[in-house]
Amino acid sequence: MKLLTKLKLRLEGVIKSVNLDWREVAVELMTDLFEERKRRFASEQENYDLKRQLAIYKEKEQQGEKYV
Questions:
Q1: Which of 16, 18, 39, 44 could form a disulfide with 8 if both were Cys (CB 3.0 to 4.6 A apart)?
Q2: Which has the closest alpha carbon to 18: 31, 9, 28?
Q3: What pLDDT, on a 0 to 100 scale, did the predictor assign at position 58?
Q4: Cα(32)–Cα(24) distance, integer angstroms
Q5: Contact (Cβ atoms closer than 8 angstroms) between residue 11 and residue 18
Q6: Are 18 and 7 in contact (CB under 8 A)?
Q7: Could you tell me the CA-to-CA distances from 50 to 14, 35, 43, 56, 61 in Å, in that order?
Q8: Distances from the Cα of 34 to the Cαs of 6, 11, 37, 39, 46, in angstroms?
Q9: Digits of tens for pLDDT over the chain (68 positions)?
Q10: Got the DSSP string for 5-68?
Q11: What is the model's pTM?
């Protein structure tokens, strides 16, 4: 019996399912990675937008001081 199969049989009570097919595991990992990249992109985009807004507010504040 293969080592992974033995391990799966021992862990079945603890873990609901252990995937032994490397292709399925790879697809699962790639999906997780894709989701993480989407979350990171959204966070970076939000950060960029907030920095732009801050720059605009600072510029308006400086212009307001010049005209006063």
A1: 18
A2: 9
A3: 93
A4: 12
A5: yes
A6: yes
A7: 45, 23, 11, 10, 16
A8: 32, 28, 5, 9, 18
A9: 577 777 777 777 666 665 567 888 888 899 999 999 999 999 999 999 999 999 999 999 988 876 55
A10: HHHHHHHTTTSS-----HHHHHHHHHHHHHHHHHHHHHHHHHHHHHHHHHHHHHHHHHHHHHH-
A11: 0.55
The one-letter code for the residue type at 42 is A
| Tokens representing residue 16 in the block | 């609901």
Amino acid letter at 67? Y
Q: How many residues does the chain have?
A: 68
What type of residue sits at position 44?
E
